[in-house]
Write a structure and sequence with these properties.
Helices cover about 55% and strands about 5% of the residues. It is mainly alpha-helical and about 350 residues long. Keywords: Membrane, Transmembrane, Transmembrane helix.
């Protein structure tokens, strides 16, 4: 309800799924074997004084605290929308680039804190926290904010509120988490803005991306969710009737969209394939299909409705601009809004899920 990541789970986000499974699993293993925790602490003092450079890798991958792991996993799960939006290779390049940058910014911020307050920061929270905080930068600038509801009539709740609340919870989980968060935000701004050409220096090579797609993607990619709800598989008559109503609404909405395409312009090459269903949208006042017989035929189970006359409702330019900020073309945004009766939530979810 409060996020724009849709209901497609981890479909088309194999890297996010891999990070969730691997990092969470390693955290559980380390909590079962606490005698090895000292090898994965992110100790700045051990790195500078004892030259244990390997801690820059081990201490910045696995969370030792279960609460940090839980919040970090929730953020990775919600940020999977960025992997769909940018692609797995660009998403991996962003994580790798900010992971390298945060190693440098961590030391700069700790030295600045020591210089200003005469306090030496000897240890920071362990785990893949800096790159995850850096993902707030593209999430804030690339994902549009859609109002969902209001709390007490004054506080606006948007589709991104839950992500910020989880980030705030992670920020307050340990004393120096704020330093890791600030390091991640600075590194994310530097990489997202391509300061000093860091995107050309810190990236995942194409050959490595292909190897990862060939080896890891079959392990972490799952089947896409079904487009249609199953009809009649052990459900009650009320549930079956509701499923048929939802399917009928989807077909009506799709027919309306094709009608809008025919009315406004001829088909053009290079446009995206709209031959998919929108999420369920209730059209009040429309006639529902008749009740099925005891042994309905396939034509009765999947009727092809005729689109009702489509009113040429003007599209709000503000909504068009907000959706175009994500990189979608003006034509696709206008057609999505017309087909969804200017419902920006439906149009946003469809564009993000099928084009993100």
């Amino acid at each position: 309800m409060f996020t724009t990541t849709g209901s497609r789970g981890l479909d088309k986000a194999p890297l996010s799924k891999g990070l969730l499974l691997v990092l969470s699993g390693l955290t559980v293993v380390l909590n079962l074997l606490p005698q090895y925790n000292h090898l994965f602490t992110y100790s700045l003092q051990a790195i500078t004084l004892q030259h244990q450079v390997w801690r820059l890798v081990c201490g910045r991958l696995i969370c030792l605290d279960l609460k940090d792991t839980f919040c970090n996993s929730l953020l990775i799960y919600n940020f999977r929308i960025l992997e769909r939006r940018f692609g797995s290779r660009k998403f991996a390049s962003f994580l790798f680039g900010t992971w390298v940058l945060t190693a440098l910014v961590d030391f700069l911020l700790s030295e600045a804190f020591h210089y200003l307050f005469d306090y030496q920061v000897s240890e920071l929270p362990a785990g893949l926290l800096g790159p995850v905080f850096s993902l707030f930068v593209p999430f804030y600038s690339s994902i549009p904010k859609v109002p969902v509801t209001q709390l007490l009539g004054q506080i606006s709740i948007t589709n991104k509120s839950l992500v910020y609340i989880v980030g705030l919870q992670l920020l307050t989980s340990s004393p120096f988490m704020w330093l890791v968060a600030l390091s991640g935000l600075v590194s994310g701004k530097l990489y997202h803005g391509n300061a000093l050409g860091v995107q050309r220096l810190l990236f995942v090579p194409r050959w490595l991306s292909r190897v990862g797609a060939f080896v890891l993607e079959p392990l972490f990619s799952g089947p896409p969710p079904p487009n249609e709800p199953p009809l009649g598989m052990g459900a009650t008559l009320d549930i079956q009737r509701q499923q048929r109503m939802d399917l009928h609404d989807q077909q009506v909405l799709l027919a309306q969209f094709h009608q809008a395409r025919r009315n406004h312009r001829p088909p053009q090459n290079g446009l995206m394939n709209w031959n998919r269903f929108f999420p369920s949208l209730r059209h009040r006042g429309q006639n529902l299909p008749p009740e099925p017989q005891p042994h309905p035929s396939p034509q009765q189970l999947h009727p092809t409705p005729t689109a009702p006359p489509l009113v040429n409702t003007p599209v709000a330019e503000e909504q068009v601009a907000r959706l175009m900020e994500m990189g979608f073309s003006r034509i696709d945004v206008q057609d999505a809004l017309r087909a969804s009766n200017n419902d920006i939530n439906v149009a946003t979810n469809f564009l993000l899920q099928h084009l993100g």
